[in-house]
Structure formats: C-alpha cells, structure tokens
Amino acid sequence: VYGDVRKAVEHQSGIILEVHQFDCQRANQQLYNAFSQDILFSTNLNHQNIIKIYDLQVQNAKVQLFKEQTGTPLNILTKLYN
C-alpha cells in the first residue's frame, strides 16, 4: 500500500473533500512518475463528469491530493459493472 484516502471538510465552504495521501518513499520511480503525470493532467481538466482537484501539497516525501468527493465508493462501482 502506497497511501490512503480520508475525508475532510473545507471550513469556509463546507465542501466535503477526499484527501489522498501518497507516500513517495514506498513507491518505485516508475509509479511515482505515473502518479505525477496523472495529477498534472487531471488538474487541467474542467468537466462536469471529471472529479475536480482542488489542491496538491507535498511535505516530507508525502503527496496530499485534495479532490472532490465521489458519490459512490469504487468497490461498489466495481461490483455493479463487472
């Protein structure tokens, strides 16, 4: 496991966010590069069907990605569409 996901509330707006924390030290360079490219690509997208990325922070070899909360957990979607 390279990271975890938690929920957070942005105090000014009350928006519920997902905070994805990724531990760069535990990942190999290829995985880190793919993750970085995905983040850079995603931050430039603006569409109603794409999850919005609000912020990205890097501290002590950990990347925190603040994203719009998804409506349905991935494990449930996987069961529905497999």
TrEMBL record:
One of its GO terms (molecular function) is kinase activity. This is Kinase, STE STE11. Keywords: Kinase, Transferase. Coiled coil: none annotated. It comes from the Eukaryota.
